[in-house]
Give the backbone structure.
Amino acid sequence: MREDAFVLKGNICYADTKDHLTVMDQGYLVCCQGIIRGVYPVLPEEYKSLPVTDYQDLLIVPGMTDLHIHAPQYPFRGLGMGLELLEWLNTHTFPEESRYKELDYAREAYRIFAEDLKKSATTRAVVFGTVHVPATRYLMEELERTGVITYVGKVNMDQNSTDELREKDAETSLADTAAWLADTAGRYQNTRPILTPRFAPTCSGPLMEGLGKLQREYQLPVQSHLSENLSEIAWVKELFPWSSCYGDVYGHYGLFGGQARTVMAHCVHSSDLEVELMKKNGVYVAHCPQSNINLSSGIAPIRRYLEEGLRVGLGTDMAGGANLSMFRCMADAIGVSKLYWRLADQTRKPLAMEEAFYLATKGGGSFFGKAGSFEEGYEMDALVLDDSGIRSTRALGTKERLERYIYLAEEGGRLAGKYAAGRKVI
Ligand code: GUN
Ligand code: FE
């Protein structure tokens, strides 16, 4: 339910730039028709008639965007972490995703996924489904009911996969995609389609060519994977020998930014040329630190990307990452940036807490437009955090409480409220 206009009161904290948090203790956050009007120390006269929810001493922060997550991989989260990407896909991922041909299985698995996502800190997510149209449609329906705002992709893959999972050919994959788009068009309020070539190795040239056409025809955004793993990059060079870099393969087919809003997961080992191309085309990087640890992929140079002005957000990459929590994701992003600085390049200083928080909120949120901040005109996505279960003898300020919540949410944090586009989710 969306009340047309309301006010939340509490200890408000949000990132307006990547280096700066605005904190307002006992502030008023005003929302009208799903849009933030502002944050005020004293409620302005014009809003005095609005209903106020007083969250007292709790923290109120913007909602978080998981910029890269695989819904069908949720059942095997936390399992099979001993392999690198290509072996992991063949051993764990493709067999699991094959099961979504059975709608009964998909129903049960996606119901659990949607329930858990709803309970998490994620207010927006960019989601991979599987190749299967009925299962993906079911996923969209489940997600729609949660109130979380999502882009959902039916996966395309017509080569280099198992017999069970691979689509018959490019025509079949494209026809299924067009049917899925037609079938789901205008059906949902919170759930939108996104084109999803899985990654270059599993997509033939004709398939990507057709997806480029669909992109232009329907003006759809695009998600995929990029330069995650060294063997993967070498394989892409073998499969597409004409390409100047991995990203150039997508770019060749019109699936790499520019007028096609695009998010690429990982970018751990992107070449200088690839970084240039991402920058020129405004391609988003979905940084997935826990996945990069689990699959021994490496450490993405996020400091460099921020210095060069690339668009960056955070992703869990479930089930490369085992954990749905965007708090854990922020702590991991900070942690791996320290290892990168210490072990790889001492000119790239570690991410500060403010920067990780910015990436999780406004950085990733901008893929959806104006989301992830409490500045005027932003869509109202908010979390109410109760940290009273994280016990300490110290008297902490709001920023310290947020920092501690990032690291200790699982110890005693409680999500006391969650709003997406002005609608109460929890
Ligand atoms: N590259 C292609 N498919 C996948 C996937 O499912 N997970 C990850 N982490 N990388 C991929
Ligand atoms: Fe992924």
Notes: The pocket of fe (iii) ion (ligand 2) is lined by residues 68, 70, 225, 265, 317, 320 (CB under 6 Å). The chain has 13 helices and 17 strands.
